[in-house]
Design goal:
By secondary structure, the protein is α/β, with parallel strands linked by helices. The chain has 9 helices and 12 strands.
Length: 240
């Protein structure tokens, strides 16, 4: 069983400290969700984890292998992939080229399953990608681009998948489908998943563990079944 572990000493933007020390630990087939309001530090936490923002110390390991010294662009080759917010993909390429490019980039460094097999798995999660395989990615809807962004990450056969607010800006019906698919990916892929999310209602139904941030500090942490019953979470995020 894979184990993805990270520790961030803190992160700042110039003189403004936005994140205090934070620990992550996720087993394969499990999901850790990072909750918090706008400005709580969720996105900064994920960026600090993979090294795209400066930190006062970062430790990262996967299955006991120390990945702390790797640059962000090197991590996918070692099984750790970030899907940033904003449904990012290569907008001037087709869906097929986006998927193939992600597979080729990772396959050049480590052994992956054949392209066609991974493509079928990804299209099983997101059938629209098969239907739109020849469409230019930039002409797709926001929800479809988000599916493509996650699909590209899965084409690298990650052991640790990091998702930054995958439901942001999506229509409610798309959000419902997205979380159902993420739950399926968690069950079937064997990934250890870390997800920052504002949609508490859906996130609490599919996550196994939770960290709640307030102004860059950990306000609550623990198994989802325990955290979701905490009065602080219920009153602040669920309105109960």
């Amino acid at each position: 069983m894979s184990r993805f572990v990270g520790r961030i000493g803190g992160a700042s933007y110039e003189r403004l400290r936005v994140l205090h020390p934070l620990d992550f630990a996720v087993e394969s087939g499990h999901m850790l969700v990072v909750l918090g309001s706008n400005g709580a530090g969720k996105t900064t936490a994920l960026r600090a984890l993979v090294g795209t923002v400066a930190t006062s110390g970062r430790q990262l390991s996967l299955d006991g292998r120390d990945l702390s010294g790797y640059a962000p662009w090197q991590l996918p080759a070692h099984g750790v992939v970030l899907v940033p917010d904003g449904a990012r993909c290569f907008p001037n390429l087709t869906v097929e080229d986006n998927l193939r490019g992600a597979h080729c980039a990772a396959a050049g460094v480590r052994r992956l399953a054949p392209y066609e097999r991974l493509r079928e798995t990804v299209c099983g999660y997101f059938p629209i990608l098969r239907e739109r395989s020849r469409q230019i990615a930039g002409t797709m809807s926001g929800g479809q681009r988000q599916m493509l962004a996650i699909g590209r990450a899965l084409m690298t056969e990650p052991a640790a998948l990091i998702l930054d607010e995958p439901s942001a800006g999506l229509a409610p019906i798309i959000v419902e489908d997205m979380f159902a698919t993420l739950a399926k990916i968690k069950r079937e892929s064997g990934c250890a998943i870390v997800m920052a999310e504002q949609n508490v209602g859906y996130a609490t139904h599919i996550a196994d563990h939770c960290i709640v941030l307030e102004e860059g500090r950990t306000a609550l942490a623990g198994p989802m079944a325990e955290v979701v019953t905490h009065q602080k979470l219920r009153s602040a995020y669920l309105g109960i």
